[in-house]
Specification:
Two copies of one chain form a homodimer.
Chain A (H helix, E strand, L loop, with lengths): L6 E3 L2 E3 L4 H8 L2 E2 L2 H11 L4 H4 L3 E5 L1 H9 L5 E6 L7 H17 L3 E5 L1 H7 L7 H17 L7 E5 L3 H15 L4 H8 L7 H11 L4 H6 L5 E6 L3 H10 L9 E5 L26 H11 L8 H7 L7 H10 L3 H13 L4 H26 L3 H4 L4
Parallel strand pairs in A: 5-6, 5-8, 6-7, 8-9
Antiparallel strand pairs in A: 1-2, 3-4, 4-9
Chain lengths: ~375, ~375
């Protein structure tokens, strides 16, 4: 991989991502100031993830707002690929989605794709049940983000009650999708299994299932990590042929992990803050491993200042943990000037994470009794 | 297509099939006299379709009988691809399967593959619901073959309750099947849709679903048209990797239609006797269209005799409508000698068909109230 190169697919993200370049490559549209204003007209305020460009790109959002303004309410759809336990990066789109749900007062469908993670696992002895187990645990983290079960419907792909309603819709998508299109969109080869070829059809279903269930065409907005865009490029081509709207998309950035240049990854445990981490683990991980934008010596730091744009702690405060614009600007300025030391910046980050996880973990335990209420019932 | 060439795949059957050659090509085993005796030991008598070689080939039947003799009972699995209404040719494997069920006293699973017929339809505007409708109508014909609902379970692939339990098992098969294996087994190309690639995984499921449901490994015997063998060649490779027995297979010949050299086909209505035909339609169709092995003139026929081996009416009496060995031998001899005229042979055929359809159609109407009882409930 040459310098500056990066890869973003639903199954692989590597390199330093140039998001402007990605917008061009993927053919999406940037979230312009005009469009942000148009959102704000309806939401009253702008979520910090919009103001700060964490959500940065879209497809057909103007159309979606046209429909909304005509009284044609949309529904939200997002998902979780349950490959294991969740880290804070996984929670980003859910926190943002909850805000959208609250501000627009709309229904939300969340798909847990245990079938995907099973089919795409490199382990030939992988068991579906393992991924179903992850999905049920991940569902607790999602509920803990604060969703309202009256407006929020979980779909678990392998759950018979859900697979049953989804399979019959998925084959309608599959009939319109050739193997060669799947190869071009996802980089599949003949050595890939037939479930991998089929799978995107299942991921397409929640984008029109509410329309099927209600017997009328309902617009759909999908907030998602930008790496998932190829799935919906394919389904946006197919859905109109089945008589449904193309879903609108709102793309989020893929926030880096604690280590330099990488993402939070299960294969490098200290690269990530897991939602089940203890205070001790968080403190140790951030202190020892969070990539720092500080100078090599205290003297140099005071003299030349730090680099918040490269600092993992700052980036996480900016993207997630410090919604207050004034506060984050002050942290930025102080760290850049050298007034704030790395140790102090990390301490702010640690305190934010610990407070967040304490609240999250309590909500997560309460969620065990609520899970049934979130599972869709026909 | 050169003379003597033939094609047998799950989606195309053409030419005059050389069944001995097919056994070699497919790598199956012939049903030997020894094996027939071994069956007879358990069934008391031999079904005429076995004696007459309508079922002519197998895979692992000796193993299945070994298990049966050890007290390890098998279950039966067969299916119907609901591409439209059914003709008498479609009923052949069901009549034989019912005999197997009665003689061995075993459970039977019947899969109606509306998903398959939808996915493989050449019509881009095809609707799944059309094939589901065919399946529900075909199910009446199957019930009319006389099955006992207490031991017989229907699976309708697109029915949510059935798709739900099948999808989660199908992806376990799909994970073990590469696109390149599917291409080699079925002749798929990249222009085929991803549902076609995936589909055989659904067809594999009933071969081990009873084992999943009962939590123990149960042998499976699949009576099927030999054109369906490629599906189970693939699943026989995969099922042992999932911890299940390879299903044993019993292959039936593909009985020709009324016209010369072809099969019964919806695209040529008078090539087939439909299970919903009236007496008038049957009489007209056989009289006018059934390919005759008779001579050009009455004199020649009396002098040289007819050719029962080429005669559609005789072939159908032999394969299906005249189980009595003495009677069929006499018809054969009389027609071959010229003693029996084509008109007389056709009259025997017509009477048999009319009597059969009268009974079948009455049973078919009664079946409407029974359909629910046959549908599998978890």
């Amino acid at each position: 991989m040459a310098k500056q190169e990066f890869v973003v697919t639903p199954w692989e993200v590597k390199g330093k991502i140039d998001y402007s370049k990605l917008i061009k490559e993927f053919g999406t549209a940037p979230l312009t100031p005009e469009l942000l204003k148009r959102i704000q007209k309806h939401t009253g305020e702008l979520h910090y993830m919009l103001k700060r460009g964490i959500f940065f790109s879209h497809r057909d959002l103007n159309w979606l707002l046209d429909e909304y303004e005509k009284g044609n309410k949309f529904f939200l759809y997002t998902g979780r690929g349950p490959s294991g336990k969740m880290h804070i990066g996984h929670l980003v789109p859910f926190i943002f989605t909850k805000w959208l749900q609250d501000k627009f007062g709309v229904e939300l469908w969340i798909q847990f794709t245990d079938d995907e993670k099973f089919l795409f696992s490199k382990d030939p002895e992988a068991k579906l049940e393992t991924y179903t187990g992850y999905a049920l645990e991940n569902a607790l983290d999602v509920i803990a983000a604060g969703f309202d079960h009256k407006k929020t419907h979980f779909l678990l792909d392998s759950k018979p009650e859900h697979a049953g309603i989804m399979y019959r819709e998925a084959i309608k998508v599959a009939k319109r999708l050739t193997a060669s299109t799947a190869k071009a969109a996802f980089g599949f080869e003949d050595s890939f299994n037939v479930g991998e070829f089929f799978y995107t059809s299942m991921q397409a279903v929640p984008a029109f299932l509410p329309s099927v269930l209600k017997g009328k065409n309902i617009p759909c907005l999908i907030p998602l990590g930008v790496d998932q865009d190829p799935h919906f490029r394919v389904s946006r081509d197919i859905l109109p042929k089945l008589g449904f709207y193309k879903p609108a998309l709102l793309h989020g950035k893929l926030i880096a992990g604690l280590l330099e240049g990488g993402k939070m990854s299960a294969s490098i445990p200290h690269s990530a803050i897991w939602l089940t981490d203890t205070e001790k683990e968080v403190r140790e991980k951030i202190t020892k491993h969070a990539f720092s934008g500080g100078r090599d010596t205290l003297e140099e730091h005071r003299k030349y200042g730090g680099n918040p744009d490269a600092d993992a702690s700052f980036q996480w405060l900016y993207s997630f943990f410090e919604p207050d614009d004034k506060k984050i600007q002050k942290i930025y300025a102080d760290y850049k000037s050298g007034k704030m030391l790395t140790k102090e910046l990390k301490e702010i980050f640690i305190e934010k994470v610990v407070a967040f996880l304490k609240k999250h973990q309590a909500a997560r335990e309460k969620a065990r009794n609520q899970l049934d209420k979130f599972m869709y019932r026909g």
